[in-house]
Design goal:
Fibrocystin; nine-stranded mixed beta sheet; disordered C terminus; Immunoglobulin-like; mainly beta; 1257 residues; Ig-like_fold; Ig_E-set
């Protein structure tokens, strides 16, 4: 049996070799003893010689015979296993069998130096152990299962090699021949842990989900399945790229400097500053809304990024301008919610603190940049202050009183608000509430804006004063007295004007004396000094301060139409007048005369010079034939020839002082008078030359115009003062005998029987006069028609009806050729024409002063004769002359407008009273004839009046609080006792809301939406004794609409474009607003809101067309904001054609109109096409006319009639060419050529020879 003793290295191993022993082991360096025993049954031979033993062919170092069955052998050096042990004795060797094999101990690794190295390999290591072989047997080494490179055997206990690539921890094994060290991880080699040197990117949004590249070392040369964490959170996914690079899809997170750890097979990277990743802090990119009320409470949505998760949202804090929101809530990683705190000002930074990290302001980058934050906004604007109204909205120019600015967004702090009156700070500003502040008004003048400044934000004001809520008006200047009140007409006198509200800025003050400016020397609020200009007569002194003028001149003085001629019409003057010492004209006798002149006028007045004065008198600017002084109060003038009425008579004394007749004392030349017409008849086609003789046709040709009936003569030729000729117009319809009149210098000759003309040569009747020219409205009275050529057969007379048509006489009786009687039908009206016609003859009619009229209506009584001031009372009117049921009678009560009445009979009407006050007359109008005021019964209004309302103008959208004033609104106990209604007379019906009794003299309410001006107001107050009504007439007006912009600003000249009109006070849907463009109404206007209208443009032309909104009867100021695009041409096809014309040419362009009604006209050069046919807005077809100018290019133009009488012409023209031979060739795509060069005078049968051809270019 073979026994193996395991000894330490370098100890002798003795092996007993026995016959039939098992396989044995020994140390590789030899020295082990091997015993050999004979096989059982083998005879033991006597020892003859020493035996020899070999192990694996190598002799043992020492052999000791022990017995016949056993020897000891010190094994030779060796490695490996399964070594055959052979014993030779006396030349006889033992045979091999499975039990005679020896195994050297396998290699064993004790240590490796160094014990770590780069994961990429290449580290030179020394391996210490045993049984590596006494000689070099080409051992191999693995580290972590991967072979070392360049293994060098140094000894049985030491090897060297270059470490392979690897990761983590690997066991070290040595392989020598077929033996290897055990897999027991007794000795390990540690590949260097991963090292992070760079992160790309090293920051990013908190949402995660994007890839970060990690650069460094020792990530392995194969996929090491790295485990990567950011701030302790596992990456969503990790990927190996190389030994120097791995990637991580980042998890969600918040905060800066999160450590990035890469773990390779349990080896984590060490923390380093280069391995820190920072989640971007919160950033705000948008706010919805971007502004809100100063009182706070706005629900603000904050949009941005990196707001963390819901857990982070529990530690959320949002602030505006460093003031925390009253409430905030996390919505998502990109959305927060906040209820704004109270505050004021603009540009307040909104900050969000998420997990103790404060948001960064939005980067200020241009909106067009490529930055992801381009155009972002992180600041919140508190709404700028606004002023709805100023109470009171006017006051003295001296200032020193408080006014209240009522509006919104004045904030909550009295220290951040300032009020300015125009550009001047109020002497004191008092903050009252978020909606009210008070201003101690500084001195000032004119119409100005009240400006409220809250922490640098000011209310918006318009560029020019208008009826805005922020308007404050300093009271207009008042002139109380002028001292001295008279002076030299040469001027230069120093005069003091006493009054009020003059201000103190001389630059804003101007003074007119009459119409002549005076120089202002000094001014304070209550008086000023001026230097009087030259003048004459009594002149009003008017003061203008900053576009506000003192009251107009009193009725006792009048101003001339020019600075050179004016005079007083009264001997007395008001205290705001200045009397120039000089001549005055008070009377002209006579005040009419013949056109030939020569009429002696007596001109009366005062200060008309002396006997030695040089007197010049002019009538209508023309010197009198003779002027002479009679007395200081009288001058004579012999009138010059002239024509026309209302001529001013002017006296000039010594070439310096002048005076003119007052307006009611002017001189009129006699009107033209026709005494004969020759011939008295002519053809119905007209063209007859007729001589008109008479008077006052003018001594010179003043261009008289003659008429035959209503038709103007084809030509009127002046001959002299007594004769004018007329070329008659054609007769169209109506009577063939027509009156002839002459119009000269605004005066028309009267119609007369001596001035008539008959169209045609037949017998025509003529009415020359009437007897009984007036009858009751019920008819039945007989009137007589006188004239000539009244034929008996089919005789019929009739009277014109008021409003149109005629009514036959009840009975027509023919008396003779010159006399007919008519029993008048019922009717109404005055100056009615009477007609006569018989069978086969034309109609005859009265003209000129020969007319018929019915009696005017008479009102004898009313029932009831009294009623409330609010009106609405049904009143029955009794009298006569009320006409027929279809004559539409009207009733007028006091100063109210004429209103409809209900006809009952010729003697009875009923009507509803309008609102009114006092005792007033009641009139009836029938057929245009009113009843007489002096005979009218009186109606008594019972009740009080509303004296005024503040503000006087209201926004059309309603909502303004108004205060109504009266002498005594009585006592009211609550809002339910008061009702306020706005409207217009009988149309009262729009009720205010929140009507409230404030005091015995004031009531407030919130105005309804509406439109119109000078509206009546009705107030009903319930008292213990019953209801009491109050009326205010014309005290309320809604604001005039205003247009601020138009979109688009230009369009087709043919119209049809949809245009949005923006502005304010466009009323309500049922107020039917309309829009005008260039003075023409849009074809359709749609109401969108109080600030927006949409209109379909009419046809038009030109730029800067005014856009006007019409709401009710109020019209906005013109907004010069719309341009009609003229037609444009771009191409013609074909571009050439024969000079003889008749070529069909298609012209392309734009703005040719939306239908054939635009009537386009095309031109080749200056020759209009024979026909132009509209095809579309972009195309017309021209049939060319005969051309001219061969070899010359021509413009092609198109004119479009966008409205009757208005043409739009193309602004860019297309060249056409007639085979030009030199010069610019133009654009061939837009040219028209005439290519026929045949002589246009050549007969059709002539032969044509072509003698030469040239390139026209």
């Amino acid at each position: 049996m073979l026994k193996l003793n395991h000894l330490r290295q370098h100890l002798l191993l003795l092996f007993a070799i026995h016959v039939a022993s098992q396989q044995t082991y020994g140390p590789g360096e030899g020295g082990g003893t091997v015993g050999r025993r004979r096989r059982s049954g083998m005879p033991v031979a006597p020892v003859i010689e020493d035996p020899s033993v070999s192990v694996g062919g190598s002799p043992c170092q020492q052999v000791v015979w022990v017995s016949a069955t056993s020897v000891l052998c010190e094994a030779p050096e060796g490695v490996g296993g399964h070594k055959l042990v052979t014993v030779e004795v006396g030349g006889v060797s033992s045979s091999a069998n499975p039990s005679t094999y020896f195994n050297y101990d396998p290699p064993s690794v004790i240590a490796i130096e160094p014990g770590h190295g780069s994961a990429s390999g290449g580290t030179m290591v020394t391996i210490v152990g045993t049984n590596f072989g006494a000689t070099n047997n080409n051992p191999s080494v693995t580290i972590g299962g991967r072979p070392c490179q360049n293994v060098v055997w140094l000894s049985n206990t030491k090897l060297q090699c270059v470490s392979p690539p690897g990761i983590g921890i690997g066991d070290v094994r040595v392989f020598v021949l077929d033996e290897s060290s055990p897999e027991n991880f007794g000795t390990i080699f540690e590949f260097d842990a991963p090292v992070v040197s760079k992160l790309v990117p090293d920051h990013g949004p908190s949402t995660g989900g994007y890839t970060m590249t990690i650069e460094g070392l020792n990530f392995g040369t194969i996929d090491s399945k790295p485990q990567i964490k950011v701030g302790g959170k596992q990456c969503r996914s990790s990927a190996w790229k190389s030994n120097e690079q791995v990637t991580c899809v980042l998890p969600k997170g918040v905060g800066p400097e999160k450590q990035v750890t890469v773990d390779i097979l349990g080896q984590p990277s060490q923390p380093t500053p280069r391995a820190l990743f920072s989640y971007d802090g919160p950033i705000i990119t948008a706010l919805q809304p971007e502004h809100g009320a100063t009182v706070g409470g706005t629900h603000l949505t904050v949009l941005g990024a990196n707001f963390g998760n819901e857990e982070d949202g529990k530690k959320l804090q949002v602030s505006i301008g460093q003031i925390p929101c009253s409430s905030q809530r996390w919505i998502s990683e990109s959305c927060l919610f906040c209820i704004t705190p109270a505050g004021v000002g603009a540009g307040k930074e909104v900050e969000a603190v998420v997990s103790a990290i404060k948001s960064s302001p939005c980067p200020r980058t241009p909106a067009k940049s490529k930055s992801p934050y381009a155009g972002c906004k992180s600041t919140f604007d508190y709404d700028r202050p606004s002023i709805d109204r100023v109470e009171p909205n006017h006051g003295p120019a001296a200032g020193g009183y408080f006014v209240a600015a009522l509006g919104d967004n004045y904030g909550t702090s009295p220290n951040l608000i300032k009020l300015y009156m125009g550009g001047v700070e109020c002497e004191k500003t008092q903050w009252v509430s978020n909606t009210k502040a008070r201003c101690l008004v500084p001195p000032g003048v004119g119409i100005t804006h009240l400006i409220v400044d809250v922490d640098g934000q000011k209310n918006s004001v318009s560029s020019s004063p208008s009826a805005e809520g922020d308007i404050f008006t300093y009271d207009a200047p008042v002139v109380k007295r002028v001292l001295p009140s008279a002076g030299d007409p040469m001027g230069g006198q120093l005069v003091t004007i006493y009054g009020d509200n003059f201000g103190s800025d001389k630059a804003k003050v101007s003074v007119l004396v009459g119409h002549v400016p005076a120089r202002v020397v000094h001014v304070n609020n209550e008086q000023m000094m001026i230097v009087m200009p030259q003048g004459e007569g009594n002149r009003a002194v008017r003061v203008r301060v900053a576009d506000q003028e003192s009251a107009a001149p009193s009725s006792s003085s009048s101003s001339s139409s020019s600075s050179s001629s004016s005079s007083s019409s009264s001997s007395s003057s008001s205290q705001d007048d200045f009397e120039y010492n000089g001549p005055k004209v008070s009377k002209v006798v006579p005040n009419f005369g013949r056109t030939q002149g020569g009429q002696v006028l007596t001109i009366s007045g005062s200060d008309l010079g002396t006997r030695t004065s040089h007197i010049d008198v002019k009538v209508g600017g023309i010197d009198c034939i003779d002027s002479s002084w009679v007395a200081e109060t009288s001058v004579l003038c012999t009138t010059p020839p002239g024509s026309g009425g209302s001529k001013r008579v002017q006296i000039v004394i010594d070439g310096k002082f002048s005076a003119s007749s007052p307006d009611d004392m002017r001189f009129s030349y006699a009107a033209p008078l026709i005494t004969s017409v020759s011939p008295e008849q002519g053809t119905r086609e007209g063209g007859t030359r007729v001589l008109l003789q008479g008077f006052n046709f003018g001594l010179t040709d003043a261009h008289p115009v003659a008429f035959v009936g209503p038709s103007r003569c084809r030509a009127t030729v002046w001959t002299d003062d007594a004769a004018v000729s007329c070329i008659t117009p054609p007769w169209t319809e109506g009577p063939t005998i027509q009156p002839v009149t002459v119009q000269l210098s605004g005066q028309v000759s009267s119609s007369s029987q001596a001035a008539v003309f008959q169209f045609g040569s037949g017998s025509s009747p003529m009415i020359t006069s009437l007897a009984w020219t007036r009858a009751p409205t019920g008819g039945g009275f007989t009137l007589t028609l006188f004239g000539n050529k009244f034929e008996q057969e089919g005789a019929a007379a009739s009277l014109a009806r008021y409003g149109g048509g005629s009514a036959p006489c009840r009975v027509t009786r023919w008396i003779s050729e010159s006399k007919v009687t008519c029993t008048a039908p019922a009717g109404v009206g005055s100056q009615l024409t009477v007609y006569y016609q018989s069978r086969g003859s034309p109609v005859a009619e009265t003209f000129g002063s020969v007319t018929f009229e019915y009696d005017p209506p008479v009102v004898s009584s009313l029932s009831p004769s009294e009623g409330p001031v609010a009106g609405g009372e049904q009143v029955t009117l009794t009298g006569w002359g009320f006409g027929l049921a279809d004559t539409k009678p009207e009733v007028k009560v006091g100063e109210a407008s004429w209103g409809p009445a209900v006809w009952t009979s010729d003697s009875s009407l009923s009507a509803q009273t309008p609102a009114g006050v006092g005792r007033v007359p009641v009139l009836v109008k029938v057929g245009g004839q009113p009843s007489k005021v002096e005979e009218a019964p009186l109606y008594d209004y019972e009740g009080e009046t509303v004296t005024s309302m503040q503000p006087e103008t209201l926004p059309t959208g309603g909502g303004a609080t108004v205060t109504l004033f009266s002498r005594n609104f009585g006592q009211a106990r609550g809002r339910k006792d008061v009702k306020v209604t706005l409207g217009d007379g009988a149309q009262l019906g729009s009720s205010c809301t929140q009507a409230r009794w404030e005091s015995s003299t004031s009531i407030t309410c919130v105005a309804p939406a509406g439109v119109g001006r000078d509206l009546d107001v009705k107030v009903e107050v319930e008292e213990e004794g019953g209801r009491k009504d109050f009326m205010g007439f014309g005290v309320a007006s809604y604001r005039t609409p205003s247009v601020t912009s138009v979109e688009p600003e230009e369009g087709n000249s043919a119209g049809g474009l949809l245009v949005t009109v923006l502005g304010r006070d466009f009323g309500t849907f049922d107020s039917n607003p309309t829009v005008k463009v260039g003075g023409r109404s849009c074809s359709r206007t749609l109401y969108a809101s109080d600030s927006k209208l949409v209109c379909v443009t009419p046809a038009g032309g030109g730029g800067g067309r005014s856009v006007v909104a019409v709401v009710g009867e109020q019209e906005s100021a013109p907004f010069k904001g719309f341009t009609y695009l003229p037609p444009t041409t771009s191409e013609v096809d074909p571009s050439s054609g024969p000079v003889t014309g008749r070529t069909s040419v298609t012209i392309f362009g734009n703005n040719f109109g939306t239908s054939a009604a635009s009537e386009p006209k095309a031109f080749i050069g200056d020759i209009q096409c024979q026909t132009t046919r509209w095809v579309s807005n972009t195309q017309v077809i021209c049939e060319t006319s005969r051309g001219k100018d061969l070899y010359v290019k021509h413009h092609v133009t198109v004119d479009v009639e966008v409205r009757r009488g208005f043409f739009a012409r193309t602004i860019n023209r297309v060249w056409g060419m007639f085979f030009q031979s030199q010069g610019d060739s133009g654009a061939e795509s837009s040219a028209y050529h005439i290519v026929d060069s045949i002589d246009i005078e050549m007969e059709a049968s002539s032969e044509i020879d072509i003698t030469e051809m040239r390139d026209p270019r």
